[in-house]
Design goal:
- By secondary structure, the protein is α+β, with helices and mostly antiparallel strands.
- It contains three helices and two strands, in the order H-E-E-H-H.
- Strands 1-2 form a two-stranded antiparallel sheet.
- It has two domains: 52 residues, Pemi-like Protein 1, Chain: D (Ribbon), CATH 2.10.260; 32 residues.
C-alpha cells in the first residue's frame, strides 16, 4: 500500500490497516528505524503497564533475554542477506 506524506510530515494509515490492528484516534504506535526499513508497531492500550505481569510464572527473565538475543541474531542475518549490510 502506498501512502503520501504531507508537507508537515504526516501520513494517513489506510482504514483497512487501522481496522485490522485496532488503531483508533488517540492510539499509540511505535515507529522503528531498521536501517533501510521503517516499521510501525501498534502499542497495547495502556502502554507497558497494560502488559505488566502477562508472562508471570510462564517464562523467566533470563529466558526472555536469551530469546531476544537469538531474535537479534536472526534479524541481523536477515538484514545482511536482504540488504548486504
Amino acid at each position: 500500500m502506498t501512502v503520501t506524506i504531507s508537507e508537515r510530515g504526516q501520513m494517513v494509515l489506510p482504514a483497512a490497516i487501522r481496522k485490522s490492528y485496532g488503531i483508533k484516534a488517540g492510539s499509540k504506535v511505535e515507529v522503528l528505524d531498521k536501517g533501510r526499513t521503517i516499521v510501525i508497531v501498534p502499542l497495547p492500550k495502556g502502554g507497558m503497564k497494560a502488559a505488566r505481569g502477562i508472562l508471570k510464572g510462564k517464562i523467566s527473565t533470563k529466558d526472555l533475554i536469551r530469546m531476544r538475543r537469538e531474535e537479534r541474531k536472526r534479524e541481523a542475518e536477515h538484514d545482511r542477506r536482504l540488504y548486504g549490510i
